[in-house]
Amino acid sequence: MFRLIKSFFPAKPPVEFRDAEFGVLTMSSGMWSGQAERGGRTIRFCVSGTDTTPDAALLDGVRYVLGGADDVEQKAVGFLRAQNPSVQQGDFRFQGVDFPWEDKPDLYVMEFTLTGDDTIWRVDVEGGEPKSVWPR
After folding, report:
1. Residue 39's pLDDT band (boundaries 50, 70, 90)?
2. E-only strand ranges, the chain
3. Bridge partners, 27 (sequence order)
4. Where on the phi/psi map is residue 97: left (φ > 0), alpha (ψ -120 to 50), or beta?
5. Rounded Cα–Cα distance for residues 116 and 21 (Å)
6. pLDDT tens-digit map of 41-66
7. pTM of the entire structure?
8. Is the peptide bond before 130 cis (omega within 30 degrees of 0)?
9. Residue 47: what pLDDT?
10. 8 Cβ partners below 8 Å, 6+ apart?
């Protein structure tokens, strides 16, 4: 019965936004997501925004992190290694960055994976400086 009722209301296509640099971004669960190529690998990102457009300042933050701000990535990896001294420098791989707070564009989360481990390691960054790591 539910399936019959649902058939009268076609599913809405996902809301999309086209960015000149990042291509198509898709809105899902209140966040805009996309992907960028960096150093031969795909980096996932999410930013908040309105129902029709991602926040421009947060997209600039993504550009900053992905556009050659390697010192931010290196600081985050160094912070991760301080928590896990037995891990080698090249074992953490940058996977994504999230800018979830429109009112706090200098706060974001970088995600890393560790070679041979399925855990997603998250580094909270404020003003370009790592502040905390999840999981602990």
Report:
1. confident
2. 16-19, 23-28, 31-38, 41-47, 92-99, 107-114, 117-126, 129-134
3. 32
4. beta
5. 32
6. 899 999 999 999 999 999 999 999 98
7. 0.84
8. no
9. 98
10. none
Strand 92-99 with 107-114, pairing: antiparallel
State how far the Cα of 95 lies from the Cα of 135, in Å rounded to an integer: 16
| Residue recorded with tokens 């930013």 | 47
Show the DSSP H helices in 1-136 as ranges.
2-7, 56-66, 70-83
**pLDDT tens, residue by residue, 72-110:** 888 999 999 898 777 776 788 999 999 999 999 999 999
Side-chain-facing half-sphere of 1: CA atoms under 13 Å: 0
CA–CA distance, 4 with 96 (Å, rounded to integer): 40
- The percentage of residues in the chain with a pLDDT greater than 90, rounded to a whole number, is 59
DSSP at 87: S
Structure token pair of residue 28:
């899902």
